[in-house]
Amino acid sequence: MDFPVEKRESIDAYEDWIMDLEWLQKDGYTVIIYNNEYFMNEDPYYKSIIMDGFISDILPWWQEDIKYFSGGLEPKPFNVYLVD
Hints:
By secondary structure, the chain is α+β, with helices and mostly antiparallel strands.
C-alpha cells in the first residue's frame, strides 16, 4: 500500500485515515518507510508534520487513546520503521 499523502489532501484527512484502519481487521499495523533519507525530501515541511504526527497523535492513538475515543475499540500494535 502506498503512503496516502498528496498535497491536495489535508494532513487531517491523512491522520483520520491512518487512525481508522479497523476495516482491515488486523491484529496490528506496521508502516515501513524505505529510503527514509529521501522520503519526501522535496517537501521537508510536510515530512516534519508527518513524522511529528506519528509521535504526537498516531502512536498514542493506537497505544491507548483508541480505548477512550473510539467507542471501546482496543489498542493494537502500531510500528513505524524508518529504513535507509
